[in-house]
Amino acid sequence: MIQPTIEILPLKKGFLRAAADATYALVRIVAPEAPAATESVVRTPLDIALVIDRSGSMSGQPLGTAKECAVRIVKGLRPDDRISIVTFDDEIDIVQALTAVGDAKDIEARVRSIQSGGSTNLFGGWEEGAKQLAPFIKKDRIARVILLSDGQANQGLINEGEIFTHVSKLAGTGITTSTIGLGHGFNESLLAGMAKSGEGVANFGQKPEDLDEAFEQQFAILSNTFLRQVEIKIQGGSDVKARLVGEILEDAISSTRKLGNLSWNTALVAVVEIKIGQNAKADELFAVNFTAQTKEGETVKFGPQVFSLPEVDLTTYASLIADVNVSAGVSEASVSEKLEKVEDLLRRHKLKEAKELFAEIENLTDLTSWAKQKIAYLKDMLDQDAVMAMKEIRYGRSDMVRSARARAAKEMAESVNECTMNLEPLVIRRKIVSGRSAQRQNPTTPPPATPDANNGQA
Q1: Residue 129 belongs to some domain of the structure
Q2: Would you say 95 and 83 are in contact if contact means Cβ atoms under 8 Å apart?
Q3: Would you say residue 420 lies in a domain?
Q4: Best label site of 6, 39, 77, 300, fewest CB within 10 Å?
């Protein structure tokens, strides 16, 4: 197979032994451009199981939005794609067994007829969606469960960790999971965690149009995948402590991280913090290894790649200029790490402490152009609606820690605005507001705390 490139870019081109402060490096695994033959091939056919939450908590706008999103997904599929529709409350119903899309009008009518019901057996609904796809897994097709829900599971399996384990195991068989959070009080912890464990995409929104881009982006990534299940592992050298920056509370480990799918002509990025002791070896500061799966399911490994730097004295080190693009990547990953702590405080209803920590983030002097806009929006949101602020932080920090995933390293420090972001390739496009479409991006106006109950009705 064509090999990806591993890049390790230092913050400074030298290190100071036994320094009090850590230094940093940016690690990137870069996919090649798609071969000409690949570019001309029509995208891989999709097998999609849409799992729609019809429980009582979804009544009104959330269910209306879910149905309209499902209809838009069906309309966006090709005749040779296959679709299954599953609904759940305390009972699980198969609205449509897996079938070729063909003329989608009948499927659309079935979706629009869904009515709200009782309790929420979310895991049971997701599991049935997986069962619809499992017998038909093929190497020449892409299988994905898309769950549309408020995540308020109260029947069946409800333990998040156990659900994540099941979702992860299913992804290992070739069926990935994406989630769409709906309603003002959706459970972002469960839904974002399922998408992460399932190698899918987590999105949320209040209106169907907020999610159109999300679906387009999701299918673009699926259609342009070079490697799946990319995972990085780092190992510090002798007397060197190396850790991955970002998601410290969620992952609970700092030496390995799942980075997701790698698309053609893009990159996946990780920031490494390095604390170098007195007895460190300059030519073996840390090593990087990657594992992944090809689209055909074959496990592949890349590395080890060993990182080295020249040792310099204090005067020389002080005169070294930090790479502005590496600094930008480090800054966004570090801010993401702090936002995770803000989110944790909000989840524990410690609003005062959360705002104090957020004020520290606002005062950072090394924020990138995109991060400044993101932080300004989150500040307004935090002042007006702490519940939605927690959700924007949860989804936004994931973008931040991986925001450089497909940009060339030289572009990481560039200023951005709404126009330049909208010109970015779809598979890597960033947004200031995670829960809105780009057409409705207005960072100075957070969405209402209580959405109009009539909006989004099908």
Answers
A1: yes
A2: no
A3: yes
A4: 39
How many domains does the structure of the chain reveal?
Answer: 3
Contacting residues for 106 by C-beta, under 8 A, at least 6 apart: none
Distance CA 123, CA 204 (A): 19
| Residues 296 and 399 occupy one common structural domain | no
Rounded to whole angstroms, the Cα distance separating 390 from 343 reads: 6
**Residue span of the structural domain in which 329 resides:** 324-440
Q: Do 205 and 68 share a domain, yes or no? A: yes
Give domain status of residue 416, yes or no.
yes
Tell me the per-residue pLDDT of 334-371, one tens digit each, with 9 for 90 and over.
Answer: 898 899 999 999 989 999 999 999 999 999 988 888 88
Spatial separation of the C-alpha atoms in residues 456 and 63, rounded to whole Å: 8
Check whether residue 378 and residue 273 sit in a common domain.
no
Is 187 among the domain residues? yes
Residue 163's nearest CA partner among 114, 219, 125 is 125
Instruction: Quote the CA–CA distance of 234 and 362 in Å, as a whole number.
Output: 31
Phi/psi at 377 (5° precision): -65, -45
Which pLDDT score, from 0 to 100, does residue 126 have? 98
Sheet harboring 299-307: ordered strands across? 256-263, 225-236, 286-293, 299-307
Distance CA 199, CA 163 (A): 14
Residues of the chain with confidence (pLDDT) below 70: 36-43, 247-253, 399-431, 435-458
- For 47-93, write each residue's pLDDT tens digit: 999 999 999 999 999 999 999 999 999 988 888 899 999 999 999 99
Q: Which residues pair with 6 in a beta bridge?
A: 29
**Rg value, the chain, Cα:** 22
> Cα(326)–Cα(339) distance, rounded to whole angstroms?
20
Is 195 found in the same domain as 74?
yes
210-235 in b/e form (b: 16+ CB < 10 A) is bbbbbbebbbbbbbbbbbbbbebebe
Bond prior to 45 in cis (omega within 30° of 0): no
Cβ atoms 125, 88 nearer than 8 A: yes
52 in the same domain as 192: yes
